[in-house]
């Protein structure tokens, strides 16, 4: 048996603000929404999902590269975007706190770090292609 979908389920104290930020500002399309007398939930599409598991040393290394110091908790959500500087600015204008502006990483992507609604720390990344390439190749690493 193989998993067919991964959902990251986030409990947001300010549901409306989290929905506005992730759906309306970041642009994650709404797949479904449900409400009952017990509450509300909205499922947003975020493209392809992967589960990245890092040991503490690697997580610390990634934080040093992207931010310059250890800042992430147990979970960090990463979104691949076409233009990480522009999306970073857009999300900051919508209320996210920029922890680190976009930086070119050793794995050849342009990554920024933000604190977003619902207590999520976000990485925005733009793949830049193979080092020395045209930028149209997909980075592997």
From TrEMBL:
What Pfam families is this protein classified in?
Glyoxalase
| Entry-linked Gene3D superfamilies | 2,3-Dihydroxybiphenyl 1,2-Dioxygenase, domain 1
Parts forming coiled coils:
none
> What parts of the sequence cross the membrane?
none
Q: Where is the VOC domain?
A: 4-127
Q: Which SUPFAM superfamilies match?
A: Glyoxalase/Bleomycin resistance protein/Dihydroxybiphenyl dioxygenase
Tell me the superkingdom of the source: Bacteria
UniProt-recorded name of the protein: VOC family protein
Where is the signal peptide, in residue numbers? Answer: none
């Amino acid at each position: 048996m193989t998993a067919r979908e991964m959902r990251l389920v986030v409990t947001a104290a300010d549901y409306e603000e989290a929905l506005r930020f992730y759906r309306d500002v970041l642009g994650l399309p709404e797949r479904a929404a449900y409400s009952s007398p017990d509450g509300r939930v909205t499922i947003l599409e975020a493209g392809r999902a992967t589960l990245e598991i890092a040991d503490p040393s690697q997580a610390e290394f990634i934080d040093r590269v992207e931010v310059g110091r250890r800042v992430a908790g147990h979970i960090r959500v990463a979104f691949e975007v076409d233009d990480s500087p522009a999306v970073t600015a857009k999300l900051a204008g919508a209320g996210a706190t920029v922890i680190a502006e976009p930086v070119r990483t050793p794995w050849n992507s342009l990554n920024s770090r933000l604190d977003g609604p619902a207590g999520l720390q976000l990485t925005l990344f733009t793949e830049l292609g193979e080092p020395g390439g045209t930028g149209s190749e997909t980075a592997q690493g």
